[in-house]
């Protein structure tokens, strides 16, 4: 009996950080060690938090060790699940972005979905703010959708508003799809979902699918009624967007920017709010965009024109009816090269024509033709994007045509285009958030 007590006492010895042996085992994710310690200590011992206010359960969740989590939840009856700043083990799992760990915790401690930290923020707030945690958001909402209606202490912000504030459009769409009614919630300043989307640059890919400035197209019917609701400045979301980006030296513009500077000082789970990149769509800025477009379009057109003249494989020099024609003219891959190269040329020339034939005329009367100019400028950006993709495909096919005898180089040419398209998808996909 005395020997058993001695072993128990040893297991309860703490280091300088007040960590027990179980804390250390949880830190390293050692499932077998955790199981052994629990068998020696017994399931009823209430393992205390260390100096960082972290219990073994919290440590395992924070580090994403779902194996350790499962053992602790199954074999220990201790209810200690807390962490620093009033957080729970579910907060830690949300911070780690581990959907499986969240699922394991919810099965044993589902009530934690509504537990708040010292700032009044739930695990769903954390997942919404941090982004790239779609599976975590989905698990939390599937278990308890009511958590989507909870506002935090400081600003009364729901998880949906936090996601919009950060520009996490993928998270916004997921929350709205699973809980449409929560989009009607406002913060303490009367700002709604569309106000926060308007703070971000919604003319970009970020908000185009939820908040479109060309007539304000709203994909989700549940948030159409938010369009005309005024916030703290007595302004609708459309007015906020226009004031921030079109109205120079506007008194309310200054007020909005002061609020945004204040919001930028906020933090959730020690992660600060992303800076608001508010740009005025003035004539000066559009001139800069125009110049960039012209350089890119001219470059692509030049490259495509040169490639059309100096075709892969060269030209026949022998006199006769086929003199000056490409050697590879009957190759299917060569024909594909010609088509994609021509597309790159056409798209780039179309962009140049749009600028010289339309935008240069309308820019002189920007205030009157504002929406048309912005729409056409965006159209030119799309044309240049298509031209770039066509040029890369043409390059890949052209490389294949001339490198066919070398199997290794042919494989490399095959990979060029998919690699480029994959990179573009990664950059442009709103579901992949930084």
From TrEMBL:
Q: Which PANTHER family match?
A: ANKYRIN REPEAT-CONTAINING PROTEIN ITN1-LIKE ISOFORM X1, PROTEIN PHOSPHATASE 1 REGULATORY SUBUNIT
* InterPro entries assigned: Ankyrin_rpt, Ankyrin_rpt-contain_sf, PGG_dom
PROSITE patterns, sorted: ANK_REP_REGION (PS50297), ANK_REPEAT (PS50088)
What's the superkingdom here?
Answer: Eukaryota
Q: State the ANK repeat positions.
A: 17-39, 119-142
Membrane-spanning ranges:
292-312, 332-359, 380-403, 409-428
The protein's topology relative to the membrane is: Multi-pass membrane protein
* Localization in the cell: Membrane
User: For the PGG domain, which residue ranges apply?
Assistant: 284-402
- Source species of the chain: Gossypium stocksii
Protein name, please?
PGG domain-containing protein
User: GO CC terms on record?
Assistant: plasma membrane
Under SMART domains, the record lists:
ANK
The record's Pfam families line, in alphabetical order, gives: Ank_2, PGG
- Keyword set for this entry? ANK repeat, Membrane, Repeat, Transmembrane, Transmembrane helix
